[in-house]
Every structure is written in C-alpha cells, then in structure tokens.
Design goal:
Layout (H helix, E strand, L loop, with lengths): L3 E6 L15 E7 L30 H8 L4 H24 L1 H8 L24
Parallel strand pairs: 1-2
Helix pairs in contact: 1-2
Length: 130
C-alpha cells in the first residue's frame, strides 16, 4: 500500500464533501468539472480529444487513445468506444437531473471503501446489466 495518495472528486462546489477520510497523508486534492461531449466522427482517423471519446464519469481519454492506437480495425473500435461514451453521456444527464436523490444515496457510503476486482473503463457497467 502506498504511504501517500492522490484523491479527487467532481463537485459543483467543494470537492472535499465527497472525498474519503484517509489515515494516510494526501499528496493533493483535485476537483472540478468534466467535459461532456458526444463522439465526433471525422473524415480522417483521429485520436484524443478531437474524437470526443471523453468519459463523462471521469473526464479520462487515455483509454480511448490506447484502444484506437492498438487496433487493426479503427472503425469497429471507434464504434464500440462511441457506444460506451454515449451511454455514459445519457447516464450522466439522468444522474444530474436526479442529483438530489443521488447525493443522499452517496452519503450511505461515507467513509466506506468500495473495492473492484479489476480496473476498468466501461463505467456504464456500474448502472446497466452485463
């Protein structure tokens, strides 16, 4: 286990309200807005922010870049990633419209740790059957 950690949260006001209490020393606190966009098809194969493959849950785009660079079938991979980003886009809109409920729900997990079996980038799987 690391002796220090980097923590972050998305919030309209203070991100500290949503950060776990840590016994370890924090390196830094990050918080802020995440761009929301839908995937953008271009005439030329593209990578990065130009594709609109930005995860609306985390603001990350590295996963999409890595997938597009390592594939032999750009169109199929772009389509798969686009579907995930669009799902996240609409889930984010739904969550935002019912934010008051989810804030109270999230407080049930205050000071608790949620463990995942492995790291993943298809975050909509948290909310949809798979």
């Amino acid at each position: 286990m690391p002796t220090r950690t980097l923590v972050g949260s998305l919030a309209y006001s203070s991100p500290e309200l949503f950060l776990p209490k840590l016994d370890k020393r924090r390196i830094e606190i990050h918080g802020g807005s995440i761009p929301r966009t839908k995937p953008i098809r271009t005439e030329v194969k593209s990578i990065g922010d130009r594709t609109g493959l930005i995860k609306t849950f985390t603001g990350g785009g590295i996963f999409g870049i890595a997938e597009l660079l390592s594939t032999n079938n750009y169109e199929k991979t772009f389509s798969k990633l686009s579907k995930e980003i669009i799902r996240q886009y609409y889930l984010t809109l739904t969550l935002e419209k019912s934010w008051w409920f989810w804030i109270h729900f999230a407080r049930l997990f205050k000071d608790r740790t949620i463990n995942a079996d492995k790291e993943f980038d298809f975050h909509s799987l948290l909310f949809t059957p798979h």
